[in-house]
Amino acid sequence: MSSDILDRKAPEPGIRVFYGAERNQFADLRVPRSGSKHPVAMFIHGGYWRAKYDLEYAGHMAVALAKKGIATWNVEYRRVGNEGGGWPGTFDDITAALRFLSQIAGKYNLDTRRVVAVGHSAGGQLAECLAGHHLPIHAVVSLAGVLDLQRAWELHLSRDAVVEFLGGTPNEVGEHYREASPLELPISVPQRLVHGERDTDVPYSISEGYAKAKHAKGEDVELLTFATADHFDIVDPQSQVWPQIEKIIVSCT
Question: What is the CATH number of the domain that holds 136?
């Protein structure tokens, strides 16, 4: 199985809302048509925290979830290569985007008590950090997340993307590493980890090791494995595994 989602034309962006003054501080909001209050899936895209990757591919997922009655908040943010990108500026943007939801909740009928952080790849790290820093989210869904920055650095994933993101190796940056790596953070909300065994961008072993470590700490974490899926199948509404992924996200709201 292999996804071509990166080559597809993105759907219309929904309602583009700026949560900050910088050009990369915006999100695309899609709201279901029903009149009831909507739970929110806050989606954080991947790309190893680098500026050349953006939120466009996630629009397909956002459209699919909105059809299931979930409002989607597809977040853009400053990345490595943008002024202010990297840790902690990138995470500051994610935090600001989450908090901004309360300002628009009334206008768009959003239920801010039921916000699920959904992150793909490097976005999985950022989504888990929201919970690890005690921000108000209901659950986390990590889709092939880079959840252990020490291990990701040891494997030199994506040409040492962790070093670019943190501004040094885990040993060199010390406290910043401990603040940024989900493995080091106590997380009290439910965590659902989704990973394909054919993933060549973020090894399945990252989620597998993370789940074992968090289980040992008594956290509510479940790893859902897809033997035939690669890195992008799990975010592609046209893939064979998507109905199961969608069900996982819906169940977390």
Answer: 3.40.50.1820
Q: What is the pLDDT of residues 68-125, one digit of tens each?
A: 999 999 999 999 999 999 999 999 999 999 999 999 999 999 999 999 999 999 999 9
Token reading at 60:
């397909």
Rounded Cα–Cα distance for residues 11 and 19 (Å): 21
107-125 as b/e: b if 16+ CB within 10 A: ebebbbebbbbbbbbbbbb
pLDDT attached to residue 2: 52
Number of compact structural domains in the chain: 1
Q: Tell me the Cα Rg of the chain.
A: 17
- Distances from the Cα of 168 to the Cα of 105, 154, 163, 212, 248, angstroms: 38, 13, 5, 27, 35
DSSP alpha helices (H): ranges in the chain? Answer: 59-67, 89-108, 122-132, 149-154, 161-166, 170-173, 175-180, 204-216, 242-252
Q: Is the peptide bond before 88 cis (omega within 30 degrees of 0)?
A: yes
Alpha carbons 52 and 80: distance in angstroms, whole number = 9
Average pLDDT across each block of 10 residues of the chain; the chain has 253 residues. List them in order.
76 92 97 90 98 94 95 98 97 98 97 97 98 96 98 97 96 93 97 97 98 98 97 96 97 94
Distance from C-alpha of 192 to C-alpha of 127, rounded to nearest angstrom: 11
164: domain range? 5-252
